[in-house]
């Protein structure tokens, strides 16, 4: 099984908004053409702004993500330590909601 990876690099904020919109619109058209004309299915698409973070380890993690990551259960925080204060006095109510 082959995984087709498409890496889309946009120059970031060094170009105008108009050029960025043009890049984005051309990306979809290019992918459609590649998939149709070359019968390639692009299974993974990535967008980057520079090649600095594009390392072998990063690409491996993107292409082979860990399926079963261990999720740590929520750890309930401990209550305040020491004295909790005076107890509250609650009045008993009668049948009609009146206090004694």
TrEMBL record:
<protein>
    <submittedName>
        <fullName>Twinfilin-2</fullName>
    </submittedName>
</protein>
<feature type="region of interest" description="Disordered">
    <location>
        <begin position="74"/>
        <end position="100"/>
    </location>
</feature>
<dbReference type="InterPro" id="IPR002108">
    <property type="entry name" value="ADF-H"/>
</dbReference>
<comment type="similarity">
    <text>Belongs to the actin-binding proteins ADF family. Twinfilin subfamily.</text>
</comment>
<dbReference type="InterPro" id="IPR028458">
    <property type="entry name" value="Twinfilin"/>
</dbReference>
<keyword id="KW-0963">Cytoplasm</keyword>
<keyword id="KW-0009">Actin-binding</keyword>
<feature type="domain" description="ADF-H">
    <location>
        <begin position="1"/>
        <end position="64"/>
    </location>
</feature>
<keyword id="KW-0677">Repeat</keyword>
<keyword id="KW-0206">Cytoskeleton</keyword>
<dbReference type="InterPro" id="IPR029006">
    <property type="entry name" value="ADF-H/Gelsolin-like_dom_sf"/>
</dbReference>
<dbReference type="Pfam" id="PF00241">
    <property type="entry name" value="Cofilin_ADF"/>
</dbReference>
């Amino acid at each position: 099984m082959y995984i087709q990876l498409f890496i889309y690099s946009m120059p970031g904020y060094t170009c105008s908004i108009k050029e960025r919109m043009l890049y984005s619109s051309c990306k979809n058209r290019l992918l459609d053409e590649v998939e149709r004309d070359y019968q390639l299915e692009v299974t993974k698409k990535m967008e980057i702004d520079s090649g600095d973070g594009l390392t072998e380890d990063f690409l491996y993690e993107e292409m082979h993500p860990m399926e079963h990551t261990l999720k740590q259960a929520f750890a309930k925080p401990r209550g305040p330590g020491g004295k909790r204060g005076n107890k509250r006095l609650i009045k008993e109510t009668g049948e009609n909601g009146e206090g004694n």
